[in-house]
Amino acid sequence: PSHDKANRFKLSVLVILFFIVTTVIWSTHKSSASQGWGTLFQDIKVAVQIDKYPQWKYNTGLSYPTNDHGKTVAGNTYERFSWATVGVTLIAKYPLGYGLINSSFKKVLDLDGVNHNVPGQVHSGWIDFGLAYGIPGVLLLFSCLLALLILGFRAKDEYCFMSAWLALMLIPFCLIAEMSYKQYFESMLFFIAYVYRDWE
Question: What is the pLDDT of residue 39?
Fold first, then answer.
């Protein structure tokens, strides 16, 4: 009984410490992070309305739109989500892609006849990859990752299991990172080749 009591006490202390640390981290983040976090979902709601708010086409010259609270949307949130929305729309329109990875966003907009002043990428690796190599390219890459996940989690070997976790990590990471741009694209292919290496 005394042993169980000691274990419950240790667990209680760990839970309390977890909540304290979480609260401190959240408070620190809230005080130092961009103010856009407070209106994130309202800003996203504005950003995805690409026809109503065409400011996404220009880096300069037009002020950002306002959200439901009457506040100007956070620039990084507006740009990332509006460009991602446009990128997905262009992939649906050009399902075979442009054929080049660098500046694929800009080049497909040119191909579509859109007057713009945007950077070459949308800041989402999967969307940039889709703009470059279309739906077939994305399906091919996802097939490789899916095979790694299935085989890795079924295997008994710890290295194969680690490979599966690395493959799983790439999927959400490439949503927010420019993994399809210049040397980052090479690093993404390296990671995929590296996790396959464990099967030899």
Answer: 82
**Do 114 and 73 contact (CB within 8 A), yes or no?**
no
pTM, 2 dp: 0.75
Low-confidence residues in the chain, pLDDT < 70: 1-3, 29-36, 59-62, 194-200
Q: Are 41 and 63 in contact (CB under 8 A)?
A: no
Contact 182, 119 (CB under 8 A): no
Is 72 within 8 Å of 66 (Cβ atoms)? yes
Q: Where do we find the tokens 């996802």?
A: 142
Cβ-based neighbour number of residue 4 at 10 Å: 8
pLDDT per residue as tens digits for the range 168-180: 888 888 888 777 7
Q: Round to the nearest angstrom and report the end-to-end CA distance of the chain.
A: 51
CB 55 within 8 A of CB 63: yes
What's the pLDDT score for residue 97?
92
CA dist 120 and 108 (Å) reads 10
Helix extents (H) in the chain? 2-32, 40-47, 75-93, 104-111, 125-154, 158-176, 183-197
- How many whole angstroms separate alpha carbon 53 and alpha carbon 82? 9
